[in-house]
């Protein structure tokens, strides 16, 4: 499938939005930032070139002033708390989880509080009170206790539920996937597959679901397939009348005002 034909379904869906005078809200979250790298430079370059707001989920226990200095001149970039150390405490037979019920709640919550304070200190103008659980998983019993620590929002993956003790600002489109044999590191997904998901999410919003569409990337893990998709997608949406890329802080403010 040629590059132009891959994007045709998205262009047609966006044309429907434009003709209806409607605008779809998008936001962008990238996970696992720790320090300045060539991959981070490439990520920031894309965001800045296309003037697209970006939220970087930073691992507090593994980061430091170097990342703060690197982000100091990056326009439109915010920082969220990506757990504490991104360590897995679940047994082998369970899915990976740092914020599960495998340790005392006091220990987990203490680390999250330290994580928020750490990023507020390192990124005072960029840190937003958003918790991004590693592997997009958190034990439900911890969630009601997060506001007392200073968190105002959680961001995981998938459709946000209407009920819950805290607002959710989720991601929905992951440009990375598993290999066909299920072995080795994750790889960039076929572009036509991701475009089909984008169209389905847009159709869902057109029918009335009031939830921003979240793009999820992992700059440290990207192969060229993933990087190429990210750049092409930003080009497709850059300046499009039917799409508005929103900063996470603005979306969070909107959510807080309606809850």
UniProtKB/TrEMBL annotation:
It comes from the Bacteria. GO terms for biological process: carbohydrate metabolic process. SUPFAM superfamilies: Glycoside hydrolase/deacetylase (SSF88713). InterPro entries: CE4_u4-like, Glyco_hydro/deAcase_b/a-brl. This is Polysaccharide deacetylase. It comes from Rhizobium azibense.
């Amino acid at each position: 499938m040629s590059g132009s034909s891959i994007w045709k379904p998205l262009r047609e869906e966006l044309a429907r939005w434009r003709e209806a005078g409607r605008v779809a809200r998008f936001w962008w979250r990238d996970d696992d930032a720790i320090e300045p790298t060539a991959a981070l430079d490439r990520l920031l370059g894309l965001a800045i070139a296309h003037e697209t707001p970006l939220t970087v989920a930073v691992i507090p226990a593994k980061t430091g002033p170097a990342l703060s200095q690197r982000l100091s001149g990056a326009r439109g970039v915010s920082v969220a708390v990506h757990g504490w150390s991104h360590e897995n405490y679940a047994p082998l037979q369970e899915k990976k989880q740092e914020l599960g019920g495998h340790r005392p709640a006091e220990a987990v919550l203490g680390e999250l509080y330290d994580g928020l304070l750490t990023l507020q200190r390192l990124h005072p103008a960029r840190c937003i009170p958003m918790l991004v659980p590693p592997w997009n998983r958190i034990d439900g019993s911890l969630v009601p206790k997060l506001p007392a620590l200073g968190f105002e929002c959680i961001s995981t993956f998938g459709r946000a539920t209407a009920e819950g003790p805290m607002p959710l600002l989720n991601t929905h489109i992951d440009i990375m996937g598993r290999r066909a044999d299920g072995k080795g590191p994750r790889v960039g997904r076929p572009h036509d597959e991701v475009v089909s998901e984008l169209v389905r999410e847009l159709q869902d919003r057109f029918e009335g679901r009031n939830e921003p569409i979240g793009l999820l990337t992992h700059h440290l893990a990207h192969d060229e397939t993933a990087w190429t998709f990210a750049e092409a997608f930003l080009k497709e949406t850059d300046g499009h009348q039917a799409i508005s890329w929103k900063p996470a802080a603005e979306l969070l403010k909107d959510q807080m005002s309606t809850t």
